[in-house]
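Protein modeling request. Please complete all fields; requests missing the sequence field cannot be processed.
Requester role: graduate student
Desired output: 3D structure, token encoding
Chains: 1
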Amino acid sequence: MKRNIFIVALIFLIFFVISFLTNILGPLVPDIINSFSLSLTLAGFLPFSFFVAYGVMSIPAGMLVERYREKRVMLAAFLMALMGALFFGSVPRFSVALTSLFLIGIGMAMLQVAINPLLRVAGGEEHFAFNSVFAQLIFGLASFLSPKVFSYLVLNLPKSSGRSNPFLEILRKVVPDKLPWVSLYWVFSLVTLAMVVVIAAVRLPKFELKEEERAGAWAVYRDLFRKKIVILYFLGIFAYVGTEQGVANWISKFLATYHGVDPQTRGASTVSLFWGLMTAGCLLGLVLLKLFDSRRVLIGFAAAAFITLSCALFGPGPVAIIAFPLMGFCASVMWSIIFSLALNSLDKHHGSFSGILVTGIIGGALVPLVIGWLGDRLGLRFGMMFLYLTLAYILSIGFWARPLITNATISLKKKKAEA
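Delivered output (419 residues):
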């Protein structure tokens, strides 16, 4: 089938918005802890409420896509996220924050399930690893920008003046004086409302997924769960998202606890740089995936992640401020390589398999919660050492993965041409 650049571009835009909404929790955690007087364990329920939605909604979302098609599901997803953002923006309480994050998470899970099989078909199966890394590049760019927006809002909202920004003046009318960070949820409301308008206005070309890309009935999922390879890659996605969120959500609090770093400025900036270097890592990953087998790339980046995590946890303040963002660089290609290796390891049921893989994002719910629980009892540094386990599993994938289709490299193309 002819590749559809329009759909690929739309998917990249959706990835940008998903990231902008998803990865802001890290900079927010210290402010939420202080505003609502939370323990580390209770703070761990914030990412839990968001990412547990993936475990609840991912497989049903695949069935919804099959029945109602992508456009309706994407509209419903952004409307759900809009409702969650407005709910907390209007009623800023901890209990409401949990409900709000769950609703936004439901929407993001529906989007992930809808767009990943589309990206594989629209961009080409042999280019899926490359396109996925490019999507991660966009994902990282949005995550780099959102902490910058957070810092701008919390620093400038309290400063009232006659010639202030009109947008800030509007926000001051709806945001509590002592909770300037809540303004970010009004920004989320505007972003999701804009995406509702975009999706509603765009006329998607008729684009039929191949039979193997479609989500199947419950019987298909039962058959897939009986396959060892499906469980192994589910755990791979679980480990990756757990690692990513386990770092991102606790960077600011860790630096504030052990090195006295201001979470609203330097802490937020470090989180932003984490996502920024993830974007830079994706650029390098795009080149490496054209030169080397994706499994070798995964092994190299996972091994580097072990080193940078150790420097972040046990090094002095200046080293930790550099090492934590470098973790983003190391994690940059992991999601896309694991996801592409997974889908390229089965010859059918990719839509259903995608739903199972996206369910693995629940790792972003459980790992930060485990870190918070351990942090309350043994210290946050010890809690974050739990990430060594998830990184070890990611590293192992590079050794046991046996995909049916390997990523297209320059050397592989030359061999095909010669043949």
